[in-house]
Amino acid sequence: MKFTISLIISIVLFSLQSFGFTTTSKRTKLIVVISYDQMRADYLERFSPIFSQDGFRKLESQGSSSPLCFYNHVSNMTCPGHAIILTGCYPSKTGIITNDFFDTPSSCFCYCVEDKKSPVIGNEKQGRSPLLMKTPALGDYIKKKFKGSKIDAIALKDRAAILMAGQKPDNVVWFDWKSKGFTTSTYYKKPTWIQSINQSVPFNAYVNQNWEAEIPSPFAVEDNSIYEQPFPGGDITFPHSIPNIEDKNYAEAFLSSPYGIEYLFNASKFIIEQDKLGKDNKPDLLAIGVSTTDFVGHLFGPDSREVQELYVHCDRILADFIKYLDTTIGPDSYTIVITSDHGVSPIPEFAKNVGTMPLDAGRIDENSFVESINTYLNNTFKKLIVPSSWISVFEPPSLFINDSAIYISGISKTEIADSIAAFMIRQQGISHATSTDNLNAGMILPGWDKDLVQKFRNDIFPGRTGDIMFMVKPYWIWGSKAATHGTPYDYDTHVPLIFYGAGIPKNTVIKGSTDPADIFPTLCKILGISYDYIHGNPLDLTGKTSKDQQYQDLILKNPRIKNK
Ligand SMILES: [Zn+2]
Q1: Domains, the chain
Q2: Contact at 8 Å (CB) between 164 and 287?
Q3: Residue 77 CA, ligand 1 centroid: distance in Å
Q4: 58 CA from centroid of ligand 1 (Å)
């Protein structure tokens, strides 16, 4: 009998292993969530031939990954994206609707992590905290369940670190352009090591370095696209030089090069050591925001040699970091999650000129666009609103109608809103525009579908979202950056999602489509944490859930599809 049971167990274990469904049973000591700002999902595949076996490819092949991870909202910008990743909630709950927004109750046109009462150390005119984010994040739940867990975050951008860290983390640091080093604000307790981090990981370490191209010719893309913007203080082709410390471009140049990523990961290792992360059985969390990828992507676009070269370094630095975690925490004792806050569009001028068919692509200047709306309304209503404007805040994907224009003109807000929306969709490059009231009512207008209405609704936070919501056509962008993001098109929404390490099945592919909002409930499930109502769903990392079942779950449970 004993022989039979052990034989059955052996067969079952063998079967599971042969199908790759092995899971490390150890509980994780440290969860590291790494967000590569502006990383599109296709980069993993496109750059795979130039990646090593020990970085992204190791995490993908030895972890559980989702090739179909999409954001389900319109405002695909850095602030909302980083708020979604570890809260499991869209802007309709987090309140972080875009990078800068008007907050009606406080009459403040605010940066998403602005908090005047929490001065930044070394740059006291700025205040930073998660004040404007209305939901707790993973770190808050971990601290509640496991007394003694430590929650830290670091990024080159303050917004990435602050929004991933949640409401009551331990240490949160970011790069400050004024004090030229890592800092924090008075909202957080001051880390004992805040001085020594900038001695241990010095700002001036990269003076006069060169960023050389190294990808061999069969894989390397062209380096001379005329639509790119110049490297800080330099030009559009390799090598890119980091200047002297006195040069005004020094910080921007080194942070827009692989050296910026090295600097960030050296600082991350410093924090792991100082705060003894992963050293006991209480699970700790470290969120890392890799911002250099976004700086380089905006200048050179997703099809550039620079982005391709940068990801070789991302991969190498990640491989080194994995080795470091194996040594300091131990293999199978930590968990890594890889994702991004949004993707990016191609450079419109590049998209227009690639291939044989001319593509409808372009850019819209926001100021000229607002001016054209004002001219149109002045002519339509025969009322000149001087010196004011019909629009008080224009921040895609929404705009506020100026209350004083409504008062002075005597025309109802609904009539003005309908008139603006009708004007907007006749303009070049605009695909959709309607009043926020229509979207709130769930109205499906001609040219709209249910999914798109829901994506807009996921971005509506009362008091912060304006009166009209709108978006551009595919391959159209707002503003003058070479390439940017902020639409619901696949190039902006499709991002990587990889889980690896303790608690994660090995070598599995998650079935069906997933959402970065699923990261929070999936990690909660692994840690045995219960949570309040959110937008995401816990994922089956074994890859065994049938697509039909997952779709049924999506319909039944998911507010993105069906509103509760
Ligand atoms: Zn971003």
Answers
A1: 30-349+491-549 (3.40.720.10), 362-473 (3.30.1360.150)
A2: yes
A3: 6
A4: 25
